[in-house]
Amino acid sequence: VDNGSWSALAHEGAKSLGLSVPDGAWTGLKWFSDELLRWNRRVNLTAITEPREVLEKHVLDSLAVLPVLGEARSLLDLGAGAGLPGIPLALARQELQVTLVDAVAKKVGFLKHALAQLGLAGRARGVHARAEGAPMKEGLPVAEVVVSRAFMDVGAWLQLARPYVAPGGCVLAMVSRTEGLDVEALAAQAGCVLAETRAFELPWSRAPRAVLRFVPNG
Ligand code: SAH
Predict the structure, then answer these.
(1) What pLDDT score was predicted for residue 181?
(2) 78, 96, 116, 203 — which has fewest CB within 10 A?
(3) Is 103 a pocket residue for ligand 1 (Cβ < 6 Å)?
């Protein structure tokens, strides 16, 4: 996909999702998408190999988190893999401090490379660690927004994520569907309250997605 048609598709997709993405973010988002596929030939980062699908299912799906970020200044992406959703969010939100964590060294190698090349190293970092619920011991920060995608089911995720939430912060879950999930019960079990649900469809495949925002109680 050449830069012009990629950019047209990206704008169309963002518009259909109702997202406001600063113009200056798109160059980095395109570079990230290309680099992900380039590295994917030797490091397994994604099952997706089509540029248009990378745009829809990785970049736009990640950017769809933007409307629920509020005024947050710090974000922790656990099980970030190739940097999803954390890298697109860092590119779209200049003021956000981002920590991306993965347990697999090769993936963190890609994260560090991408952050350096994107000029994000000053406010975003990749950390090789296994998150097990003890941020201090693991050398991980707490953050105002704790997010993950394709990492754990919602119930287990809420239990794991809670200790990483800074005072006044929240946990986000990115899910493909909410039917059959008793989200409120899962939240209660983890000592959280469901504060917001943003359901949407990906622009071309029409695949259903939702971002759920949970706030710890007490
Ligand atoms: N968020 C990315 C990757 C999802 S795959 C995406 O949406 O594409 C899940 C990732 O979690 C893998 O890269 C795996 O290495 C990582 N992982 C699994 N358990 C982990 C743990 N306890 N702490 C940190 N990363 C973990």
Answers:
(1) 87
(2) 116
(3) yes
Place of tokens 């309250």: 193
Residue 179 has pLDDT above 90, yes or no: no
Query: At a CB cut-off of 8 Å and minimum separation 6, what does 172 contact?
Result: 65, 68, 145, 146, 147, 148, 211, 212, 213, 214
Distance from residue 163's CA to the centre of ligand 1 (Å) = 18
Residue 197: pLDDT above 90? yes
Determine if ligand 1 sits within 6 Å of the CB of residue 79.
yes
Q: Taking the chain, what is the end-to-end CA distance rounded to the nearest angstrom?
A: 49
**Does the structure show a pLDDT above 90 at 175?**
yes
Q: What is the mean pLDDT of residues 122-144?
A: 98
DSSP labels for 98-121?
EEEEES-HHHHHHHHHHHHHTT-T
The string of DSSP letters for 19-74 reads ----GGGHHHHHHHHHHHHHHHTTS---S---HHHIIIIIIIHHHTTGGG-TT--E
The answer for residues whose C-beta is within 8 angstroms of residue 24's C-beta and 6 or more apart is none
CA of 118 to the centre of ligand 1 (A): 22
- Of 63, 102, 176, the one to substitute when testing ligand 1's pocket (max ligand atoms within 8 A of C-beta) is 102
